[in-house]
Write a structure and sequence with these properties.
The complex is a heterodimer of chains A (113) and B (116). Helices cover 0% and strands 50% of the residues of chain A. Chain A has no helices and eleven strands. In chain A, β9 and β10 (103-104) form a beta hairpin. In chain A, the strands form two sheets. In chain A, strands 2, 4, 5, 6, 9, 10 and 11 form a seven-stranded mixed beta sheet that branches. Chain B is mostly beta strands and 116 residues long. Chain B has no helices and eleven strands. The chains are: A mainly beta (113), B mainly beta (116). At the A-B interface, β4, β5, β6, β9 and β10 of A face β4, β5, β9 and β10 of B.
């Protein structure tokens, strides 16, 4: 059984640029969620994908967008990067309701300069 | 706004002691509750989940849930230096914006240090 894998592990971007982060969900999991974790804070929900459609969104602007593919992998895209977007971005996969918990990937550390 | 509050810490205990971590939540409709451990620079790792009122034990860890008080706790017995990490309380509730699926709301975490 494979876990959740994210790429890249680290990324440095310039303010105003665009970035794409990738996530492969755990085998058998059909739901992918994305979280942003700023330093010293708990993870904040960005959005969730189920059956290739967005199913729930947190308080993030439209420049945060995503995709889920038929194999349940997912992408997070952020346009017009701002300095405050610097954070650890976590992908989590689960079965539908997530009743048994969510498995997190190792994260992507994004630094915007 | 659904909130999850944790005692801010940091919490420092000697090796072998019991560490007690507490969490309250605002959404009475929440159905499942999780404790994650996060080492510095790493991603959260699930250590316990609980759905029913009462205690759930797994090795040195005991999760306690009281839905009437909207309170969940984690006890770590015989604490070890390797338990030093940030512990995140997470609650699974329906998202605010018309979602049909649950999502996790996290507290800010409690930093635990176990000293030898």
């Amino acid at each position: 059984e494979t876990g959740v894998t994210q790429s890249p592990t680290h990324l440095i971007k310039t303010r105003g640029q665009q970035v794409t982060l990738r996530c492969s969900s755990q085998s058998g999991h059909n739901t992918v969620s994305w979280y942003q974790q700023a330093l010293g804070q708990g993870p904040q929900f960005i959005f969730q994908y189920y059956r290739e459609e967005e199913n729930g969104r947190g308080n993030f602007p439209p420049r945060f967008s995503g995709l889920q593919f038929p194999n349940y992998s997912s992408e997070l895209n952020v346009n017009a990067l701002e300095l405050d977007d610097s954070a650890l971005y976590l992908c989590a996969s689960s079965l539908s309701q997530g009743a048994y918990g969510y498995t997190f990937g190792s994260g992507t550390r994004l630094t915007v300069v | 706004q659904k909130e999850v509050e944790q005692n801010s810490g940091p919490l420092s205990v000697p090796e072998g002691a019991i560490a007690s971590l507490n969490c309250t939540y605002s959404d009475r409709g929440s159905q499942s509750f999780f404790w994650y451990r996060q080492y510095s620079g790493k991603s959260p790792e699930l250590i316990m989940f609980i759905y029913s009122n009462g205690d759930k034990e797994d090795g040195r860890f005991t999760a306690q849930l009281n839905k009437a008080s909207q309170y969940v706790s984690l006890l770590i017995r015989d604490s070890q230096p390797s338990d030093s990490a940030t512990y995140l309380c997470a609650v699974n509730s329906l998202a605010d914006r018309g979602s049909t699926l649950g999502r996790l709301y996290f507290g800010r975490g409690t930093q635990l240090t176990v000293w030898p």
